[in-house]
Amino acid sequence: MALIGVFDSGVGGLSILDEALRQLPENDYLYLADSANAPYGERSSDWIAQRSLALCRYLANEGCDAIVVACNTATAQAIQEIRAQLSIPVIGVEPGIKPAAMHTQNGIVGVLATEATLKSDKFNALLATLPSNCRFIKQAGEGLVPLIESGNANSEETLELLAKHLEPIQDAGSDTIVLGCTHYPFLRKSIRKLLGDSITLIDTSDAVVRQLKRQLELLQNLSTKKDVGSVTFISSKNEDRLLSMASDLLSCDLSLHAVTTQLLGDIG
Fold it and tell me: Which in 17, 63, 99, 259 has the greatest CB count within 10 A?
């Protein structure tokens, strides 16, 4: 088994952790939420890069064999530098615009993501590689992450704001929507309520965990003795609150794992 770090600005990365616990339950996990500084999507590129690197260094120093940067914004702004600085596998996440382009029937794809992700060089470089006959409707989901972070993913306030953000995507006739932030899979029910079941929703949790699995298979001397590993929830704000939200948002059964919490101290 391996010790895997999963890092996000807040609870969004729980969507990745959920899939990891489903596919790779035998490993131990450190889930690090920088909730004191969420959301990242409205912060400067330099701040995001420096903070993300510092947190990933912390996870590496804790003995992680691999790290998942389970935040689209942090991946877009910092993944290259993190990989350059650390000697362990670092898996990032990015909006699933490539699978969306392959799946769409009418060539119109909505991309709901943070402003920082949509403006990033990494995202736009990826966009430039895709077929020109596919039209992407880019929409920043401003305000959605704080609502999810506050435990209001299914509130009327969130539904109203989400409807506003989805309107340009719907008006354009999109048949596919990319959930370009790891927080947004927790809005699936609300999106279905607003747009129905015919629209396709794309998120990359499964692909990210499959890449993690491939990276782990390349590592040597990893024990496979345990059936189910432990999960430690680390928060820069309130570790008990993080555990409570994880219990609400995760579909996996946390009671099967040894669960502990930890408050993140000063990491310099």
Answer: 17
Span between the terminal Cα atoms of the chain, in Å: 30
Q: Is 182 annotated as a binding residue?
A: yes
pTM of structure = 0.94
**How is residue 66 written in tokens?**
């691999």
Question: Is 40 known to sit in a ligand binding site?
Answer: yes
Among all chains, which residue has been given the structure tokens 């990893």?
222
Q: Is the pLDDT of residue 224 over 70?
A: no
64 is known as an active-site residue:
no
Q: pLDDT by residue (tens digit) across 132-187? A: 899 999 999 999 999 999 999 999 999 999 999 999 999 999 999 999 999 999 99
Do the Cβ atoms of 55 and 9 come closer than 8 Å? no
Burial of 178 (0-12, 13-18, 19+ CB in 10 A): buried
181 as an active site residue: the answer is: yes
CA distance 253 to 206: 18
Report d(CA 173, CA 176) in Å as an integer: 9
Give the CA dihedral 214, 57, 248, 206, nearest 10 degrees. Answer: -20
> How far, in whole angstroms, is CA 230 from its chain's centroid?
20
